[in-house]
Amino acid sequence: MRIDLHTNTDEALLVTRCKKKDEQAQKILYMRYVEDMMVLCMRYISDREDAREVLMDAFLKFYNSISDFEYRGEGSVKAWLKKIVVSYCLMFLRKNRLTFESTDDERYHTEIAAQEHIVEEMNAKEILLLIHGLPAGCKTVFNLYIFEGQTHKEIAQTLGISEGTSKSQLHLAKSILKSKILINS
């Protein structure tokens, strides 16, 4: 059975077809989620080519392990794929020696409160660019805490750091972002 690429094909059907190694169903799921997952990768990995490579590896893992996936309703595919992508981003960062900045550097301790209207006037691309400029360790902790909703305990376990380091990296990330927002306004 041929699937029309232009219709809003049911996710459950796509998963069933992917489990049977149906390349067309794989293509539809890829096209459905590639942009969102690339944005996710770019939140962790600033270099576009590295992010693209990590994303391809994550999609390959997704398709190779889809037989283990249990469909739980609309959105469950995206949630599972997101976990795989984040995991692959973190593996990439570990492999490339993720480092954590010292919070003793005074240039990052500008404690000026950003005015709300400044952030509201920024678009998602501008905010993403500011996040890209964070040091790798800060960016990783910031993403895990803010976007993935992990606790400092979970982040510490995931990254092999202390909870205190996680907290200080988040504080440093917020301080850097505040100062960059004020500079760009």
UniProtKB/TrEMBL annotation:
GO terms for molecular function: DNA binding; sigma factor activity. The keyword Transcription applies. One of its GO terms (biological process) is DNA-templated transcription initiation. Keywords: Sigma factor, Transcription, Transcription regulation. Pfam families: Sigma70_r2, Sigma70_r4_2. Residues 126-175 form the RNA polymerase sigma factor 70 region 4 type domain. Residues 29-97 form the RNA polymerase sigma-70 region domain. Belongs to the sigma-70 factor family. ECF subfamily. NCBIfam families: sigma70-ECF. This is RNA polymerase subunit sigma-24. It comes from Flavipsychrobacter stenotrophus.
